[in-house]
Design goal:
It is a single chain. By secondary structure, the chain is α+β, with helices and mostly antiparallel strands. Strands 1, 2, 3, 4, 5, 8, 9, 10 and 11 form a 9-stranded mixed beta sheet that branches. It has 6 helices and 11 strands. The protein is globular. The longest helix is centred in the N-terminal third of the chain and has 14 residues.
Length: about 240
Amino acid sequence: MKLRARSTKIGKVRFTSHRDAARMWERALRRAGLPVAFTEGFTPRQKISFGLALPTGAESIAEYVDIELQPDVAPNDVDLDTLPRRLSDALPNGFDVLAVIEREQRVDSLQEAVASCTWQLWGPQLTADDHREACRLLESTELVLERERKGKRSADDVRPMILDLRPDPTGDRLIADLVTIGRALRPGELAELAYPNIDARDVRALRTHQWLDDDGSRREVIPLPADVDASTLAVLA
């Protein structure tokens, strides 16, 4: 039996790295008493895998983790209705498990399956006019950005990585749909382009959706439960 969980990463925990967050999940699974399967060998590890890494400092209401249970665990042995609360109670503040589903046996890993993400960008120095001006990036045929990777700098055209830009209904935040396939555009890099007169480190970023490509249409990895208000979660960030 394999599980897939959707969770948040909001507040002070946004400054923890992807690796540290993984360790927190490992401890939480032990605290919750979930019968997780282990790898073989001299250093057995829990069979869990994470989706796209969240940049340190960014927040999210759409983080995912896959968990494989021990072979003798039957579906009736795990109460998926109460599991989100059990896991949330075992995780630090800021990590809130919103939903857990049984994962199909033969599906692509999260890192392979997710095709795009939706982000919200905002900051204390940014106005509704700044967000409207940022949307004009869509009019460009080319957006060259200096980027560094493994100590090497390169000039990349990142325009194909931006699917859409629009202000949110309040005008207080910019909503961005970004491609994740290949060398993805980070929200901090988008902030450099969208707000050239603002230090990108002063721009907050919240991931609200991770999207799968389903024969040309997109769908969420796990939709939010009906009793969870996405707008309320976003305001908490």
